[in-house]
Design a protein that fits this description.
It is a single chain. The chain has about 210 residues and is of the alpha/beta class. Helices cover about 45% and strands about 15% of the residues. The protein contains eleven helices and eight strands. The strands form two sheets. Strands 3-2-1-8 form a four-stranded parallel sheet. It has a four-stranded parallel sheet with strand order 4-5-6-7. α2 packs across α3, α2 packs across α11 and α4 packs parallel to α5. The protein is globular, with a radius of gyration of 16 Å. The protein starts with a helix and ends with a helix. Bound molecules: 2-keto 3 deoxy 6 phospho gluconate (ELE). The site of 2-keto 3 deoxy 6 phospho gluconate has 16 residues, from loops. One of its GO terms (molecular function) is (4S)-4-hydroxy-2-oxoglutarate aldolase activity. Pathway: Carbohydrate acid metabolism; 2-dehydro-3-deoxy-D-gluconate degradation; D-glyceraldehyde 3-phosphate and pyruvate from 2-dehydro-3-deoxy-D-gluconate: step 2/2. It is an enzyme of class 4 (lyase). It catalyses: 2-dehydro-3-deoxy-6-phospho-D-gluconate = D-glyceraldehyde 3-phosphate + pyruvate.
């Protein structure tokens, strides 16, 4: 099984929203992961877009047993390995390259690769991928675009990410080819900066209700 869906599927099916996190300060990682898990969102994606990201992943993996930490914005094989070694339990990429797919093949940690077009999706199906990130969701055509892929490309499931918030998440979640959505709205930068963890727990709990 190329994609290791046995590891990936429980993560994606476990909650309607995967928080996409930009962590500037390593010290924020553990309280943030705890706050999101307390609200019902244990799986989180820490993007490798800051210098603190790998240490943040390591801290959450070591100190927050209730969390399921993943790494996002993985662009190449080196980052894949670093993120996996730091304790990531899943890897998310905005798109794929042959080197990235090779890194995924030789790793124990599953990849959720990004794709938009029918051709990109078909190429990933040939590689054995059935669960994809649809990125950037709103900008690329939104829920209407994604819905139109559900019949011709039946069997491929998506986690749309990019431009999704509490107002439009439900539209995506109601599509037959959506398993969950990704978004940064549950952990706004200002609340993280101010350490308002209780408010983040409330946003997470509100997001969990989207599933009902
Ligand atoms: O870096 C990545 O891998 C990304 O996924 C890019 C964006 O951070 C997400 O798409 C979240 O987007 P917003 O919820 O619109 O803030």
């Amino acid at each position: 099984m190329t994609q290791k869906t046995d590891l990936l599927l429980p993560v994606l099916k476990g909650q309607p929203v995967i928080p996409v996190l930009l962590i500037q300060n390593v010290a924020d990682a553990v309280p943030l992961a705890r706050a999101l898990a307390a609200g019902g969102l244990p799986a989180i994606e820490i993007t490798l877009r800051t210098a603190a990201a790998l240490d943040a992943i390591r801290a959450v993996a070591n100190e927050v047993p209730e969390a399921i930490v993943g790494a996002g914005t993985i662009l190449n094989a080196r980052q894949y390995e670093e993120a996996a070694n730091a304790g990531s339990r899943f890897i998310v990429s905005p798109g794929v390259t042959p080197q990235l797919l090779e890194a995924a093949r030789s790793s124990k940690v599953p990849l959720l690769p990004g794709a938009i077009t029918p051709g990109e999706i078909m190429a990933l199906r040939e590689e054995g991928y059935t669960m994809l990130k649809f990125f950037p969701a709103e900008q690329a055509g939104g829920a209407a675009f994604l819905k139109s892929l559900s019949s011709p490309l039946a069997g491929t499931m998506f986690c749309p990410t990019g431009g999704i918030g509490i107002a439009n998440a439900k539209t995506y979640l109601s599509l037959p080819n959506v398993v969950c959505v990704g978004g940064s709205w549950v952990a706004p930068e200002n609340l993280v900066k101010e350490g308002k963890w209780d408010e983040i727990t409330k946003l997470a709990a509100e997001a969990v209700k989207l599933a009902s």
